[in-house]
Records
---
Amino acid sequence: MTGEAGTAVGPAEVVRQIGRTTGTVVAALEGLDEVGLRAPSALPRWSRLTIACHLRYGAQALLRMTDDVAAGRPPSFYPEGRDAQRPGTLEPGAAESPAAVVDSLREASGALAARWRTVTDWDAPVVEPGGAAHLGPVTLGRLAILRLTEVEVHGTDLGLGLGPWSDTFVRAALPMRLAWLPSRRSNHRPVPGDVRRSWLLAATDAGPTTRLAVDGATVTSTPVPPGAPVPDADVVIEAPSRELLALLLGRSSLPVAADFNRAFPGP
């Protein structure tokens, strides 16, 4: 069974890696006292506790969405709307201690892992109601890759020396992110409308080569098959797959990152 966007990484492998990475993240958080949990992370304005709350809510939301898809109900990551609901998901509940947040993160992650081990149709569509759309139309398989993205990327954001990103994550997420850019750019956050530029992203290892082009509101993502002529582009970025993924996720230190992230401002 292949994974999203033609990658050879199947959902079972993705789910296993989610378990491994989540276990590492939770263990690192459990090793901190309250001061350590409240300390700043590598993300501006986010503490380590903010990340723990965010990961906890993600596990709870994806479990609910998986059950909704199975039951034929409309799934939604933020049922009350992203702007209204998201702030409350980034902080502990009333009188909830930081340690209790970490405990509940472990419990929620375990419940999601157990549920996903029972999934048989990873191609099942996940279509949120129009008024509460956050992810755009995806599949259960893509939800699993998105969860792996959350735990891998935010694990390194904790500033606790976790990482590097796993090979499973890079192989699963890079082709998916490249194929998803046209719709993700339009349904996620405001972007400049005056960008007219093209980029050729070429992995220097066994990863993909893709031409991305932006013409105002129109975005195209065109894979370049192995052995095919390399198309022209305004900017050519040759780097290992892991670094190209970091560029797409707004975590790159490449000199071209600022220009690229103006058109594609991260996940």
Note: The longest helix spans residues 48-71.
---
Amino acid sequence: MEAVILAGGQGARLQPYTTVLPKPLMPVGGRPILGLLMKQLRRAGVTKVTIAVNYMADTIMALFGNGEKYGLEIAYSLEDRPLGTVAPLKLINHLPDVFIVLNGDILTDLDFNDLCNHHMQSCGDLTISGYQRESKIDFGVLDVDKKNNRLTGFREKPVYHFDVSMGIYVFNRKVLESVPDGQPYGLDNLVLDMLSRNAHINIYPFRGYWLDIGRPDDFEQANREIDALDFGFGKDE
């Protein structure tokens, strides 16, 4: 298997941290989160990783080099401007028929082999890893009859549950045939376009550990919890 890691974003939500380091190099447990992902992919049998870079690209390329220290072949795809989450894939030559795509700022214990097997056994061209996220509203929520301005219900600090995208996908290469060249195009564009054609998109439901470190609170949580996670390799590896 091959994988593409999306590492070109500016990490605006993590400023001022990301004025010094690109988000994929933010340290979690003393190591860049991108390095953790590299080791997990290698353990899953991935042999080649292409990193799509833009913001602070030279810093990322200098740290990871050709991938020798990670036991991987690492290549780079440089965007000359931000292109979103899907358009950068069209800049990468010789992608295999099936490949993994993931954001470079994710802390998870997801089994990439199981994800790929799930995709291969399905009949879809795209698989999205999904996670149930809890969202608490810190206010009393009013249900209002707008026509009469009359209260019809009240909920004190309700908790809602949503199935959200984890930023981890498996693509069939032919999906990229419909992606426009040279212009920003994200996963939201792709999914909506595919749904409009009644295309089959798989969901891989995941109930393990997942955290996107793109916000300061989540970055701090990741550093509190990293020591309790088992990624299948030693702390010194």
Note: The two ends are 22 Å apart (CA to CA).
